[in-house]
Amino acid sequence: MPKRTKAIVALILTTLIWGPAPAIIKLGLARIPPMTFLFVRLLLQSIIVLPFFLHHLIKYPLKLSQIPALFTIGLFGQTFSLAMFFWAISKTSSLDAAIIGSVNPIFIMLSAVIFLRETVTRREKIGALLALIGTLIIVIQPWAESGFSLHNGFATRIAGNLLMLVYLICNTFYTILTKKNFLKTKIDPFTKTCVAFFTATVTLFPLSMIEIASLPISQLGVFGRLGILDLSLIFSLAYMILLSGIAAYFLYEYALSKIEASEVTVFTYSQILVAIPAGFLILGEKPSGVFLIGGMVIAGGIMMCYTPLRETKHPS
To answer: Where is the EamA domain (predicted)?
Structure first.
C-alpha cells in the first residue's frame, strides 16, 4: 500500500475516534474537574507508553539538540491546547466545541502559508473568510438563543466557545511546529508523541493540584467516592487514554509525517459528522437553528477551500 494511502487510512481512523471525543469528555467532566481529568488521563497514558519508549530509545537515541523542540511541541500540542480544550468543554456544549474545532483546517492552512510557505488561492481565501464568519456565529450562538440577554448561562457558554478559539490557536502552533521539525530534524512520530505525553503530565500536575485544592470540601467528598467506582468516568477515561490519547495521536502523527499539513487537516471538518450523533446519543444534545446556520456557513467555507482531498501539486 502506498504511503499516501496509508496516511489517508490513518486519518479516517483518527476522525472516527476523535469525532465522539467531545461528548465522551463531557461525560467524564460531570464527575471530576477538567485539569484533574486531563492529568489522570496523561499520567496513565505515559505509564502505558513508557516501556515502549525506553525500548525505542535504544534503537533511536535522542539528540540533545532535539529536546527543546520536543518540549515546545509537547507544551503546545498537549499542555496548552488540551488544557484549553477540556476547560472549554466543561463550560460549553460538546456540539459547539466540535463545530468550532472543525475550523482548525482554516487556521492551519493560513499558518502553513506563513510559516511553511504553502500557496493559497483566491478561492481558498474566500472559503477561509466564510468559515471564520460561521465560527463567529457559533461563538455568539448562546447569546442569540437567549434573546441577547446577559444571564449566567450565556456568559459561561460564550466563555467556553472563546476558550475553543484559544485551543485552535495552540493546536495550530502544534501542527506547524511538528511539520517544521519533521522537515529539519527528522524526529520520528513515536518519539515526538511520547515526549509530548511526558511533558504534559509534568506540566499539568500543578494545575491539577491547584484545581483540587480550590474545590469545596463537599465536592472533594463526592470526587473521592466516585473517582474509581463510576462506570461512566471509567469509560470516559479508558476511551480517552487508549483510543483518543494513544491510538489516534500516533495515527495522526504518522499521517502528518507523510503528507502536507494542509492535507492532514482537511479531515478535521469531517469529525463533526460523528460528533453530532455522538452528542445526541451520549448527552442528549440537539443542534439549534442558529447552530445549523453557523455550521452550514462553516461547511460552505471549508468546501470552498478543499475538494474531498486536495491534490498535491508537483512540478511538471
So the answer is: 6-139, 159-305
Q: How many domains does the chain have?
A: 1
pTM: 0.81
Classify residue 32 by its DSSP letter. Answer: S
Question: Does a structural domain hold residue 294?
Answer: no
Rounded to an integer, what distance in angstroms lies between the CA atom of residue 29 and that of residue 87?
10
Residue 302 lies in a domain: no
- The answer to whether position 40 is within a domain reads yes
The model's pLDDT over 263-316, given as tens digits with 9 standing for 90+, comes to: 676 676 678 888 889 999 999 998 888 888 888 888 888 777 765 444 434 333
Q: Which residues contact 145 (CB under 8 A, 6 or more apart)?
A: 288, 290
Which of helix, strand or coil describes residue 29? helix
pLDDT digits (tens, 9 = 90+) for 244-275: 988 998 888 788 777 776 667 667 667 888 88
